[in-house]
Amino acid sequence: MDSLLVWSVDPMRKVFKDDFPLQKSTRQVTMETVRGALAIGQIAVKSSHGATLEVMPFKLRERMGDEQITIIPRFVGFVLINVNTPDTPVRPIAGCPLSGEIDREAPCKIPDPLLEDDCLRIEPGESQPIWFTAEVPCEQKPGIYRGEFKFKVDNHIESVPVELKIYGATVPKERHLWVVNHLRAEPLAEFYGVEPWSPEHWEILKNFAEDMALHRQSMINPPMFSLVKVIKDKDGLSFDFTMYDHFVELFKKAGVVGKIEGTPLGGSDRKTVSLPEIQILNSEGKVAYRQPRLNIRSPEARDFLSKFLPALEKHLGEKGLLDIYLQRIFDEPRDEDAKEFRFLSSMVKEFSPKIKRMEPILSVDLEDALDVWIPPLEHFEGGIGFDRYQNFFRELQKQGKEVWFYTCFSPRGSYPNRFIDFPLIKQRYLHWINFKYDLPGFLHWGYNGAYKIWGRLYWNYRNEFCCGIQRECYAPGDAFIVYPGEKRPLSCLRYEIHRKSIEDYELLRSLSNRNPKLAEEIVDSVLPSITGYERRIERFNSVWRRLVEALS
């Protein structure tokens, strides 16, 4: 006779294929959230002989009235990784059980993508996680909502009791944290086999914009020199911003735009800095020539910027976008790049004085070249030699300057980050860090990665993703936080926790407006330092309840 196990699992704990229920596990699913936020939950299913599972949405009802909430169940897919995040201990240090920073040692399969399938075959003896989500409106009545999740196992029905507690606190619709995960817009056309900037491409972009808005991304990065047409005629250069405006409006309508990131003007090979190659059209709209890469010190580069930047500033002003636009200079300048960075930034200031400048940076020797400084997370708490960074950014903040932070394939080790093989609780703290250190923005380069990376995320015969980025300098999942779905992104465990962390920031901000001392105390109780955070999920949940109860 087939043996079927079904048990509930905290959504911040990953379910692996060889997992068994803990001794204290039950079928009862208990979810908690606030209004205007996402509710998440999870169960695991294991069949000794294998089975075909089928799921469908279901409703919970408030026990004292007619209020309802719809729960969406989704199967969690697995990602094959061949190497772990570098420079990160895999196993706990003897006598310190919480010192291990990795979920599983590679090669291994790790749960992450949320699949589109409503039917899935599980193999004998393997555990399959099923993820629950519910969108709770700001106007939803607080209370306890109960119901049953009924799902098909081959030819019979299994039932799981589900309870959702909605607290009276509310995550506001307005975004107060600037969050950008870089979208690679053009590679989407190639990936999905459509013509760039065709109606089909715009429809795909609309799907991605809606997903970004749902996950509270509040900033976009339009590909400037692909969208703005540069035209040369007898009167000189002119600029057509029609497609750029369409891109901004599409994302704005979806609910994403709080700020706009301007494409970096230069690119550095650590020896020279150049403007990108740019396509120049004639007055008939046909390609006249391609302007080659221009060294920023050349008269030709200055001539181009002296025309483009004033036109950009004027257009942004006419569209009412000047206050939310931030122009990048070139990516991650190091100390050896500082002189060229200051030079290019000075031209931005000279030719478009009303445009603010931002950049993810690795140097502090940039003088007044920036309005928004974005250092890597480890610059706020690091080892020997990092004091100069910490003191520098604290002083900037005292002067009223805006400071954010970014992550990429670093920091690693004990730092919070969003890698596939990191425990989810490490990602949950990312935007608690924003609140604790008064950093109003967060930047990451990898929403959907580059085509060559994302394109190597492929389905195998068992409905699993295989992770294609295995270069030693990268960490699995660094390049992407969504997966390729049917002309739309698939969310994943990391992306859901990313959203929960952003919601936590808003709740902490709300509490701080009422009781700053209590908000600080709550944060410090689980995040005394960037690398010294509370690892126990149950303890974190207890502190989160204290936060929302204080707001309810």
Question: What report would you give on this structure?
Answer:
With 552 residues, the protein is an alpha/beta fold. It has two domains: 131 residues, Immunoglobulins (Immunoglobulin-like, Sandwich), CATH 2.60.40; 297 residues, Alpha-Beta Barrel (TIM Barrel), CATH 3.20.20. Helices cover 27% and strands 29% of the residues. Strands 1, 2, 3, 4, 5, 6, 7, 8, 9, 10, 11, 28 and 29 form a 13-stranded mixed sheet that branches. It has a six-stranded parallel sheet with strand order 13-16-22-23-24-25, with helices on one face. Strands 15-14-19-20 form a four-stranded mixed sheet. Strand 22, helix 6 and strand 23 form a beta-alpha-beta unit. Helix 2 packs parallel to helix 4, helix 9 packs parallel to helix 11 and helix 12 packs antiparallel against helix 13. The longest helix is centred in the C-terminal third of the chain and has 22 residues. The protein is globular. About 1% of the residues have low confidence.
